Amino acid sequence: MRVSVQGERFELGHEAEAFAQANTSAGAIVTFTGIVRQADQGGLVAMEIEHYPGMTHKALTEIAQTALERWSLRDALVIHRYGRLAPGELIMMVATAARHRKDAFEAAEYLMDYLKSRAPFWKKEVLADGAENWVASRAEDEDALNRW
Amino acid sequence: MDILYFAWVRERIGVPREWVETSATTVAALVEELRGREDRYAAAFADLSALRVALDQELSDFDASLNGVREVAFFPPMTGG
């Protein structure tokens, strides 16, 4: 299991390939990637991601550890960036490796649901006109935890 | 005790962290104490339902005891992913 909280960019292809090659006995690999969306209107120029350095790695590790045990995963990977990101940049990725795809898919969804609402990250949109908006949490994200 | 603020809570209060001498025994009592200090605290803590709290880097709640706690963090609901 690897958890990385980093300012630097990462390469999706490289990370996915390395994860797959490290888990050739798994049978199923699922990856999910979050990307800074180019706004339809309003001209997003950047997404600023703040986090709680002392808590972030620990919170992500606990979430990943729970997923590993609950779905008997072979492996899990979580990468999450912080700092100022431009539209089109990758924010984060998760990967899961399991014997069969159902476990890999479910564990990846679990990781994402918990990561969105329980890992200490906050996003601020910076618009072309200089306006800055903190992205509000959504009730659906909180509700999503109830299914687990 | 060390108090940390994140996202718009940090912006409203104006500092990312500060050391506070307090005899408050619960998070709620600490919040009351801070609210009484200056308007910027009152503004940041106006609606507790819009806030979350972590004690020594574990999510907690406003009824929790501060006994033995070294670091308190206040922030809005997380928006990772």
Automatic annotation (TrEMBL), chain A:
Query: Tell me, what is one Gene Ontology molecular-function annotation carried by this entry?
Result: molybdopterin synthase activity
Q: What class of enzyme is it?
A: transferase
List the EC numbers from the record. 2.8.1.12
Query: Which InterPro entries does its entry note?
Result: MoaE_sf, Mopterin_biosynth_MoaE
Where are the membrane-spanning stretches?
A: none
Q: In which pathway does it act?
A: Cofactor biosynthesis; molybdopterin biosynthesis
Recite the UniProt keywords alphabetically. Molybdenum cofactor biosynthesis
**Catalytic activity from the UniProt record:** 2 [molybdopterin-synthase sulfur-carrier protein]-C-terminal-Gly-aminoethanethioate + cyclic pyranopterin phosphate + H2O = molybdopterin + 2 [molybdopterin-synthase sulfur-carrier protein]-C-terminal Gly-Gly + 2 H(+)
GO annotations under biological process?
Mo-molybdopterin cofactor biosynthetic process
- Give a yes or no for keyword Isomerase in this entry: no
Q: State if DNA-binding is listed as a keyword.
A: no
The record's comment on protein family reads:
Belongs to the MoaE family.
Function noted in UniProt: Converts molybdopterin precursor Z into molybdopterin. This requires the incorporation of two sulfur atoms into precursor Z to generate a dithiolene group. The sulfur is provided by MoaD.
Q: What is the annotated quaternary arrangement, including any partners? A: Heterotetramer of 2 MoaD subunits and 2 MoaE subunits. Also stable as homodimer. The enzyme changes between these two forms during catalysis.
Could you tell me what this protein is called? Molybdopterin synthase catalytic subunit
Q: Which organism is it from?
A: Parasedimentitalea psychrophila
UniProtKB/TrEMBL annotation, chain B:
Please, which domain of life does this record's source organism belong to?
Answer: Bacteria
Which InterPro entries does this entry report, sorted A to Z?
Answer: Beta-grasp_dom_sf, Mopterin_synth/thiamin_S_b, ThiS/MoaD-like
Q: Fetch the Pfam families from UniProt.
A: ThiS
This protein is called what? Molybdopterin converting factor subunit 1
Gene assigned in the entry: moaD
